[in-house]
Amino acid sequence: KAGVTQTPRYLIKTRGQQVTLSCSPISGHRSVSWYQQTPGQGLQFLFEYFSETQRNKGNFPGRFSGRQFSNSRSEMNVSTLELGDSALYLCASSFDPSTEAFFGQGTRLTVV
Amino acid sequence: GENVEQHPSTLSVQEGDSAVIKCTYSDSASNYFPWYKQELGKRPQLIIDIRSNVGEKKDQRIAVTLNKTAKHFSLHITETQPEDSAVYFCAASPSNYQLIWGAGTKLIIKP
After folding, report:
1. DSSP B29
2. Residue contact B101–A42, C-beta within 8 A
3. Mean pLDDT of chain A
4. Beta-strand relationship, A107-111 and A10-13
5. Rounded Cα–Cα distance for residues B105 and B107 (Å)
6. By three-state DSSP, how is residue A72 classified?
7. Torsion angle in degrees (nearest 10) through CA of A39, B36, A101, A22
8. Is B96's pLDDT higher than 70?
């Protein structure tokens, strides 16, 4: 079956701009989680969606938001980009967070 | 809330030796403990997991042990090989809503 697909793979944005990242989960998975990964850092949890509802949110400013559609596809949005937002953004899908999570290849965002 | 600490941050072992990575968690309600491996430039992938009703689980050269009383779980890799070089992440699930991740351990296998 098809894996988790994230688009785009790479993005370069200017400070102050906004960006939208997309994640298509594995068919049948209703849970989608988003993570930020910076070089040498771990996986910083952003938020988790299940059946279009955000069930949990990590410790990130309100500039980071997301949503999930009825087909379980999810988007995350970052407004007013800052240089420190440069990172690899990973999404992971699963039946629920207490089962195996399958990660996408990530979107590498560079803010200049 | 749940907090997961992972040690060491870097581990260097001779090829063929064993490697052990340890994680501690704070929330006694946590009931699911997966381990993920992330090779350079690749996405994290599950290598083994354990649930709170099991004390140990093995899969070939990889094993995970769980001590609920002490609130820690460990990844054991025996007969290490060059392809084991990667960053390993542990995680704990205090609920169905979230996985709390450790900071990662960079495992280096020396030839």
Report:
1. T
2. yes
3. 94
4. parallel
5. 6
6. coil
7. 20
8. no
Rounded to whole angstroms, the Cα distance separating A84 from A60 reads: 12
Contact A33 B93 (CB under 8 A): no
Tokens in use for B29? Answer: 């309600």
State the average pLDDT for chain B. 94
Q: What is the pLDDT of residue B9?
A: 95
Cβ pair B98:A96 closer than 8 A? no
CB atoms within 10 A of CB A77: 13
Chain A residues within 8 A of B101 when measuring between CB atoms: 42-43, 45
Query: At residue B41, what is the residue type?
Result: G
Given a cut of 90, is residue B98 above it in pLDDT?
Answer: no
Q: Is B107 helix (H, G, I), strand (E, B) or coil?
A: strand
Other beta carbons within 10 angstroms of residue A38's beta carbon come to: 12
Nearest-angstrom CA–CA distance, B60 and B69: 26
Closest-CA residue of chain B to A107 = B43
Q: Quick one: pLDDT at residue A42? A: 83
